[in-house]
C-alpha cells in the first residue's frame, strides 16, 4: 500500500448509469501517460511496484524503463512538477486521456478527448508538505473527500470535450492517437458539455467502492473507440482483471449493474444469481426463432472505420516529436519557480539510481532542452551539498486547504 499524499499519478474514473447502459470513463488526473504501446504496459507496471527480491520500490527500475521509453518524459515531467502531489481529489482535474470517437445522425465520425475541469482551485503539496501530511494520516485523500461531501461542500467538475473531424487526424504533424501527446487547446478548443457534482457518500463502502469495477469496454450507443493502441489494450485488460478480482459476473454486483434492462446471451458461470436476460426462456442461443428474444439493434452500430497501410509490429523509433510537447511544457507553461521545484523533485527521485541509468536519463532531458538537464544537474549538486534553502515553495493562499502548510 501507499499513503495518499505520495508523488504519483492519480486515477480519475467515472461510471455513468444511463438509460442505455453503463458508460465507464476510466481516466487519470493527467491528460497523457508514460507509454503509448499496450505491449509494454505490464513491464511499466512492474517498475512501479516493488522489487521481487527486496520488496522495496526501485527508482533504478523506474528510470531505467523511462530512459528506454523516452516518450515517457512528458508524463514524468508532469509527475515531478507541482502537479505530482495533488492535495486531494477536489483540487485536481480529470482526463479521459485516450482518444475516443463520437458520430452524428449522418454517420460522420469525430475523434474526441474528454476533460473534467475542476471547479475548485487547483492545489498541490510540495515534498516537505506531503511528508508532514503522511506523518499525520495515510488517508488524506479519502478523509478530505468524505468530510467535504458529508459537510455539504460538494465538489464539482465541468465536463468538456475536444473534437477533431475524422479526416483531420491524417493531416497533423503528430499522431493524435498517441497517449503520450495532448491536443492543442488552440486548435481544438474545449467545448463545455455539462457539470458533475459529487454530493453523496456511499452507505456501504465495501459494496459500492471495493466492488466497483470500471472498464473502458463499458460504453453506450454513440461512443466508440479509436486507433489508440493503449486504449485497445485496456479494453481487454480491465474486464479480464475484474473477472479475476470479483468473479465471472462482476457486472451484476450492485455497484456495477446497469439501472436499465439488460439483454444478452451470457449463460451460467460462477455466482450466476440472476435469471436469463435473453427475453425468452428457450432462447439461450442466437440466432433463434423467437420474436421476443433479444436481437442486435443495427441503429446503434458505429460507422465503418477507414483503414489503410501495412499491419505489423514496428520497432519504435526515437523521434523529436516525442520531445516537442514536453519542451513546450517546460519552456512555455511552467514558470521559473515551477521549473526550480521540478528540477529539485527530479534530482531527489534520481538520487539512488546508478550512474549508467542517470546518464541515459540525462540524455533524454537534454533532448527536451539543455536548460532542463542543467537545472536537474544543479539541483542534484545542491542536494549533495545541502544547499537547497533557496528553492521556492508552493505559494499558500487563504484558499489553500492544507494542514501541513500552516
Helix and strand arrangement:
Layout (H helix, E strand, L loop, with lengths): L10 E8 L2 E8 L12 H8 L10 H10 L4 H8 L13 E2 L4 E4 L5 E10 L8 H10 L3 H11 L5 E10 L25 E7 L7 H6 L12 E2 L4 H18 L74 H13 L2 H15 L4 H14 L1 H16 L21
Antiparallel strand pairs: 1-2, 3-5, 4-5, 4-8, 5-6, 6-7
Describe the structure concisely for a colleague.
The protein is an alpha+beta fold. The protein has one domain: Catalase HpII,  Chain A, domain 1.
Task: Describe, in plain words, how this protein is organized in 3D.
This protein has 406 residues and is of the alpha+beta class. The chain has a single domain, classed as Catalase HpII,  Chain A, domain 1 (Beta Barrel). 32% of the residues lie in helices and 13% in strands. Strands 3, 4, 5, 6, 7 and 8 form a six-stranded antiparallel beta sheet that branches. A two-stranded antiparallel sheet has the order 1-2. A hairpin with a 2-residue loop joins strand 1 and strand 2. Helix 10 crosses helix 11. The longest helix is centred in the middle third of the chain and has 18 residues. 28% of the residues are buried.
Tell me, what's the shape? Answer: globular
**pLDDT below 50 for ≥5 consecutive residues: which ranges?**
400-406
Helix content: 25-40%
The biggest beta sheet reads:
6 strands, antiparallel
Helix and strand element order:
EEHHHEEEHHEEHEHHHHH
Q: What's the end-to-end separation, in Å?
A: 27 Å
Number of contiguous helices: 11
Number of strands: 8
For the residues shown, what is the average pLDDT?
A: 93
**Domain module count:** 1
Structural class: alpha+beta
Name given to the CATH architecture: Beta Barrel
